[in-house]
């Protein structure tokens, strides 16, 4: 699918889409609980749909009502010996240890970008927990056989926090007096989100400096009601759109959220945009924008919207944390450099630092998403202040996290033409 986004002034109000990070965790917790859980404001992005299908294959019954989903479970009791996590990195890294709670041999697969993302962690760590595990040279598909037996282990958290999220969620159902130690953990706020979600479903973990995670007495997940928060990762694109091209109010954003990408607000403020935070809304308005410095090591998904912002800021913006981008849906440092380069914006990659030379004018161009939702959205936002229309190829990539994105951009005054 091709989408053309033309320059436009942004003005209006929009409600943030549901967070896929929160939704996928809630689906996993509801699967691990015994009884009926209600998930309100459920997400319908491809990653969320994949999580629902995985939960069903692992034994949950799901009733989809218009306003909420009911997930009834009796713990992990697989119906099939195969699960497919679609393109979700979190999905596969979270559901693999959870599936390993069962003694059934299970094949775990995915498609698209997920087939190139590293999974060798499981081959190293799961055998320490008495789970057999093979991969195809560190990639999909995985073949596992549990049951997982929690043990005191030390793991490396530098590649991705998602493996730890999976272990924490699985340990929560069975662990007793055991500690996971993590070295060099990255994306820490995502672990805070995992612990917060687990606590909401009745499982508490004692955390020390994001290095030690201790499970005391045996606990069990409690079925309950959960409302999925608005998504700061997706909303970051709308907030940047307003900061560079007008003004907007984004609703259903918890400004006290544990989501890491709430950090977009700091960069917006540093760039000179006007930001007004309510409890569940953010108002944002354009002003003279200047280059800024930030460290996105722990919020790597902010790179694409930060680049769209920086392209509109006079001067050279410095963003730290590029090394976190190599194993996302695309190698995002390189992809941003290539696609923004087509729009006339120079990006230099110097080790772990990205330099965006902004304020030089964004040019009309044809760009490609590389099947990466956040690249498609960043290009769409950049198009708002370009000197002509920007054509985005493979624009349907947004469905992974934010199927409503082009509609929301239009709702705010964006000129978006979707070619079938
Ligand atoms: O736990 C999560 O929901 C996520 C964690 C982050 O991954 P890493 O921990 O690999 O940085 C983030 O990039 C991803 O989009 C979602
Ligand atoms: C990297 C992402 O997700 P995941 O790792 O869950 O596929 C993302 O949403 O940008």
Description:
The protein is an alpha/beta fold and 420 residues long. It has 2 domains: 206 residues, UDP-n-acetylglucosamine1-carboxyvinyl-transferase, Chain (Alpha-beta prism); 197 residues, UDP-n-acetylglucosamine1-carboxyvinyl-transferase, Chain (Alpha-beta prism), CATH 3.65.10.10. α5 runs parallel beside α6. The longest helix has 14 residues. The chain is globular, with a radius of gyration of 21 Å. The termini are close together. The model has no long low-confidence stretch (mean pLDDT 98).
Report the total helices. Answer: 12
Contiguous uncertain segments of 5+ residues: none
The count of β-strands is: 24
The CATH class label of the largest domain is: Alpha Beta
> Which structural category fits the helices and strands?
alpha/beta
Please state the average pLDDT score: 98
Number of domain modules: 2
CATH topology of the largest domain: UDP-n-acetylglucosamine1-carboxyvinyl-transferase, Chain
What is the CATH homologous superfamily assignment of the largest domain? Enolpyruvate transferase domain
Shape: globular
The main sheet comes to:
4 strands, mixed
Please compute the radius of gyration using only Cα atoms. Answer: 21 Å
Tell me the strand percentage band. Answer: 25-35%
Spatial strand arrangement across the major sheet? 22-23-1-24
Q: Termini, distance in Å? A: 6 Å
- The amount of helix comes to 25-40%
Instruction: State the CATH architecture of the largest domain.
Output: Alpha-beta prism
Small ligands present? shikimate-3-phosphate, phosphoenolpyruvate
Pathway: Metabolic intermediate biosynthesis; chorismate biosynthesis; chorismate from D-erythrose 4-phosphate and phosphoenolpyruvate: step 6/7
Pfam families: EPSP_synthase
Function: Catalyzes the transfer of the enolpyruvyl moiety of phosphoenolpyruvate (PEP) to the 5-hydroxyl of shikimate-3-phosphate (S3P) to produce enolpyruvyl shikimate-3-phosphate and inorganic phosphate.
Enzyme class: transferase
């Amino acid at each position: 699918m091709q989408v053309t986004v033309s320059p436009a002034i942004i003005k209006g109000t929009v409600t943030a889409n549901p967070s896929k990070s929160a939704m996928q965790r809630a689906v996993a917790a509801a699967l691990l609980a015994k009884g009926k859980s209600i998930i309100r404001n459920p997400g319908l992005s491809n990653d969320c749909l994949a999580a629902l299908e995985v939960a069903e294959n692992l034994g949950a019954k799901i009733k989809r009502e218009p306003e909420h989903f009911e997930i009834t479970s009796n713990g992990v009791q697989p119906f099939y010996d195969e699960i497919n996590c679609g393109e979700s990195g979190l999905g596969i890294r979270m559901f693999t240890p959870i599936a390993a709670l069962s003694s059934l041999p299970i094949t775990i697969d995915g498609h698209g970008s997920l087939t190139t993302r590293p999974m060798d962690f499981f081959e190293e760590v799961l055998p320490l927990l008495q789970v057999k595990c093979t991969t195809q040279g560190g990639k999909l598909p995985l073949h596992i056989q549990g049951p997982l037996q929690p043990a005191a282990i030390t793991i490396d958290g530098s590649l991705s926090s998602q493996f730890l999220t999976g272990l924490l969620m699985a340990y929560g159902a069975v662990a007793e007096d055991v500690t996971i130690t993590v070295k060099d953990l990255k994306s820490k706020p995502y672990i805070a989100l995992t612990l917060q979600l687990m606590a909401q479903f009745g499982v508490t973990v004692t955390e020390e400096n994001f290095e030690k995670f201790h499970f005391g007495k045996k606990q069990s997940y409690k079925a309950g009601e959960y409302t999925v928060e608005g998504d700061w990762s997706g909303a970051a694109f709308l907030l940047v759109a307003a900061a560079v091209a007008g003004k907007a109010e984004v609703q259903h954003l918890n400004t006290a959220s544990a989501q890491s990408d709430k950090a977009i607000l700091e960069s917006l403020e540093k760039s000179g945009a006007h930001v007004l935070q309510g409890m569940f809304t953010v108002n944002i308005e354009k002003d003279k924008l200047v280059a800024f410095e930030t460290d996105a090591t722990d919020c790597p998904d902010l790179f694409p919207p930060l680049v769209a912002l920086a392209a509109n800021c006079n001067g050279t913006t410095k963003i730290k944390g590029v090394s976190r981008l190599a194993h996302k849906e695309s190698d995002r440092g390189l992809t941003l450099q290539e696609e923004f380069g087509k729009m006339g914006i120079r990006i230099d990659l110097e080790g772990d630092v990205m330099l965006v030379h902004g304020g030089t004018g964004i040019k009309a161009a044809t760009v490609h998403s590389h099947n990466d939702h956040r690249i498609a959205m960043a290009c769409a936002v950049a198009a708002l202040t370009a000197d002509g229309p920007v054509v985005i190829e493979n624009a349907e990539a947004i469905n992974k996290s934010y199927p409503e994105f082009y509609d929301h951009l239009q709702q705010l005054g964006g000129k978006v033409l979707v070619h079938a």
